[in-house]
């Protein structure tokens, strides 16, 4: 992956959390309601029986650990590993969630372990001034890493190219959901679900690996 892109992402989100603290705005979301709505879409990846019995999950670009907070509020028994490029984000996550046997946070560019599932929320949205083709190569690199660290599947979301033009911003990346569905279907699994019906200007892709 491009070191320039990784440094740019780390710097951007570090500045956000310094300004807004451990809040949805600190990871560039508008508020907690839409943030939790995204989490609910991503966790559709995990079968209900595993949500009851327990599963392991890698949170790619975990920020301050909001997904872990949400999962605990839902009563989900999860063995959780979150990593992020931003040292400030991980410091905030550790403050929010003291380490225990089922929780680990680290500053890293990739996961240091495997888990049942891997998810990424919002990490592909802010491209800043990176050229579109360069940013898409970065996304492809991250998806390969998510595939490699997950045994049963992975899920991610992205702003959609079907957004209303007057509200689109030039520093954000709007992905073509059909392109990413095709990419995941052809590259990673025959079992791919595209969710584009939950009222936000984005889509979520669930990639379930065949057992």
From TrEMBL:
Q: What Gene3D superfamilies does this protein map onto?
A: Vaccinia Virus protein VP39
Entry keyword Methyltransferase:
yes
List the molecular function annotations (GO) for this entry: methyltransferase activity
Q: Which Pfam families match?
A: Methyltransf_12
The catalytic activity of this protein is classed by the Enzyme Commission as 2.1.1.-
Query: Which keywords accompany this UniProt record?
Result: Methyltransferase, Transferase
Enzyme class label: transferase
Keyword check for Transferase: yes
One example of a Gene Ontology biological process annotation:
methylation
Start and end of every Methyltransferase type domain? Answer: 58-136
Extract the coiled-coil ranges from the record: none
Protein name per the record? Class I SAM-dependent methyltransferase
